[in-house]
Design brief:
This protein is of the alpha/beta class and 643 residues long. It has a domain of 118 residues. It is built from 27 helices and 14 strands. The strands form 4 sheets. It has a 5-stranded mixed β-sheet. Strands 12-9-8-14 form a 4-stranded mixed β-sheet, with no helix packed on it. A hairpin with a 4-residue loop joins strand 4 and strand 5. The protein is globular and about 70 Å long. The model has no long low-confidence stretch (mean pLDDT 94).
Length: 643
């Protein structure tokens, strides 16, 4: 146990970590982040911390990132105890997690929803507040950029699928409560709350939340209670706004219609349509960005409530080289790029000055890839040109993520092998040239992720054997563990010896047990992997869910995908039992880790056949299966179309 006092409040941190240096390196920041979150929330809500004590418990292999028990928040230990090589994303993620769970002391614990159809509210409040709370602790970070990257890609990852669900969902039986959770609650709903704040004003939202908390302290209240309070503070029709944004699923398709007259704009309009063809209209405020090759730009505010909004003030302005409908990064939807804009971004995106605009461009191009309008090799080529020029670490991490995702998911294996050496060379040089430890760690993590060539595998093995250093990155036990696992799944000649030796390197009993659990999934012997998968049929062998998910990721790694296709149908057939016996996030995580390594038409056919064979599958579980399968189904179309 560690104890500290901040602002006159005693806090205690309980843990099982055996590495004293790791504790001492992290404890101060953990206590500071909790203290600053408490102070911010007391100021914002006008309500002092509502419980008698404030402690936290760090649990190895905890199935959630955190759980907001009043007086003793539980966390997954690895989420808070960071290594020296932690990336900026990891540091921001820890701060956000702490702010999220601390916010729950007011939103969820002080005031609790009457029933699980409003469970989304406490998660939304917590994530929305966390985005604000984290700002002062990271003054060097662009927090508008952070909000965009932390929320939009994940929310779009569900809302673009055939299994998209509303934010607020009716629930008749608690045995399906776990199916309510996911990116729509955790990522889309905070975006919607940011829209609400923009619609009615920051002061009106804050004062309404204060009234809501004060009126329902230590009691129950739900969405209709809050809307009634906020409705009195605005002329907007919040009930109608809520029906589209909160009660219904999906996102609008938003397009820019530009007509030019010579070198100037004759007419500029923004249009929205409903991909579900239900005629819905989403009420939101946008800021169009008109960009020019000389670096100049114009930003024009648009209130999109109808099918079309004409931007009258654009008439007469010079015709732009590109137009982004989501110019400020807050608008939500499939922001379709016109061909001129798409071509410009693919050629010139790295030269755009503002980091937020570059990020908006990247998110838009990724959606274009998934829609089939941009090829994976075009995006990879752009990433290779953009990364050496990118100055914002958040953008570097996002581009590295898109690069590695396109590489593994949307390239055919033969193209992946052909491109590997040049991508590896770029990532290794980026590691060496990074100006900070966290940035070097991000570059090296991507290098380790994509390594395929003989030269790269020799280097990784030398690093694991501590015969070569990674420039600027002090490696920790978890890094060596990931190296050993990655070398094993790549089938290096002495992989069994590497895995066995790594087991002996791990002193902490909890982490050693986790590694031992995963070892059979790394085996070069198919029969060992088969036996491991069969063992997961027993609920007792799935009890430590984070261990299971790690093992499944390696079992279904893209390099083993052809061999692991045999596990797809049995894994899908276990879904209903997984829901009955697992925790709330486990069914979707099981599906994702089962399907995410696959890209072939044959794998897609297995999923489609499963869904066809199971018309009786509970609608919520079917939705989760469709969400998890979306990337595989798109990958199969993209990869097959590239041949």
């Amino acid at each position: 146990m560690e104890e500290a006092e901040r602002g006159g409040r005693r806090m205690a941190m309980y843990h099982r970590e055996t590495d004293r240096e790791r504790i001492e390196r992290n404890a101060g920041a953990i206590f500071d982040l909790h203290a600053s979150a408490l102070a911010w929330l007391e100021e914002y809500t006008g309500i002092p911390f509502p419980f008698e004590k404030f402690d936290f418990v760090l649990v190895p292999a905890f199935q959630y990132g955190g759980m907001e028990h009043p007086g003793a928040i539980f966390y997954r230990a690895d989420s808070l105890l960071l290594d020296e090589s932690a990336t900026q994303n990891a540091q921001l993620g820890r701060a956000s997690l702490i702010a999220h769970e601390t916010a729950h002391q007011w939103f969820g614990d002080l005031v609790t929803m009457p029933w699980f159809d409003d469970v989304w509210m406490k998660e939304t409040f917590a994530n929305f507040m966390a985005a604000k709370i984290v700002n002062p602790a990271f003054p060097e970070v662009d927090h508008d950029l952070r909000f965009l990257l932390a929320h939009y890609p994940a929310a779009y990852g569900v809302d673009r699928t055939a299994g998209a669900n509303p934010i607020r969902q009716p629930l008749d039986n608690l045995n399906e409560a776990g199916t309510l959770y996911g990116a729509i609650i955790y990522q889309k709903a905070p975006i919607v709350f940011a829209h609400l704040e923009r619609l009615i004003g920051e002061d009106a939202l804050r004062d309404g939340l204060r009234e809501y908390l004060g009126a329902h302290a230590y009691a129950n209240a739900g969405w209709t209670d809050l809307i009634a309070i906020l409705d009195a503070r605005t002329t907007e029709d919040l009930a109608a706004w809520s029906r589209t944004w909160v009660e219904e699923s999906g996102r609008p398709r938003v397009e820019v219609a530009l007509e030019t007259d010579g070198d100037g704009i004759a007419r500029l309009a923004v249009r929205q349509s409903d991909p579900a063809e239900a005629g819905r209209l989403w009420n939101q405020r946008l800021e169009l960005r008109l960009g020019y090759d000389d670096g100049e730009s114009n930003t024009l505010a648009v209130h999109l409530r109808d099918a079309e909004a004409v931007v009258a003030e654009a008439a007469g302005l010079p015709a732009p080289d590109y137009v982004l409908a989501n110019g400020a990064g807050l608008g939500y939807g499939l922001m379709a790029l016109d061909p001129r804009t798409r071509d410009y971004l693919l050629a010139e995106l790295p030269a755009i000055d503002e980091p937020l605009t570059r990020a908006i461009g990247w998110v838009s191009l990724w959606e274009s890839l998934l829609e089939g309008d941009v090829g994976p090799e075009a995006l990879i080529d752009l990433a290779q040109r953009a990364l050496p020029a990118e100055t914002d670490e958040q953008n570097v991490s996002r581009i590295l993520g898109y690069l590695t995702s396109a590489y593994w998911r949307y390239l055919a294996p033969e193209r992946r092998a052909a491109l590997a050496p040049e991508i590896e060379a770029l990532l290794w040089s980026g590691t060496a040239a990074a100006g900070s430890r966290s940035l070097a760690a991000a570059w090296f993590g991507a290098y380790r992720n994509v390594a395929l060539s003989a030269e790269a595998l020799v280097r990784l093995e030398r690093i694991w054997r501590e015969e070569e250093e990674v420039p600027g990155v002090p490696l920790a036990e978890r890094d060596f563990t990931a190296l050993a696992q990655g070398l094993a799944v790549r089938g290096v000649a002495d992989s069994a010896e590497i895995v066995a030796a790594q087991r002996e390197r791990i002193d902490n009993p909890d982490r050693r047990a986790a590694f031992e659990f995963v070892m059979p999934a790394l085996s070069a012997e198919p029969e060992v992997r088969d036996a491991f998968f069969d063992s997961l049929r027993e609920p007792a062998n799935r009890a430590r869910e984070p261990w299971v998910l790690t093992a499944l990721r390696w079992l279904h790694h893209p390099l083993r995908a052809r061999e692991s296709e045999v596990y797809l149908r049995p894994g899908l057939d276990l879904l209903e039992e997984i829901q009955r016996t697992g925790d709330i996030f486990f069914p979707l995580s099981w599906l994702q880790t089962t399907l995410d390594g696959h890209q072939t038409a044959s794998a897609a056919a297995i999923v489609e056949q499963y869904l066809a064979d199971r018309p009786d599958l509970a609608p919520r579980l079917r939705a989760k299966a469709l969400q998890a399968a979306d990337g595989l189904l798109r990958a199969a179309r993209i990869v097959e179309g590239s041949h």
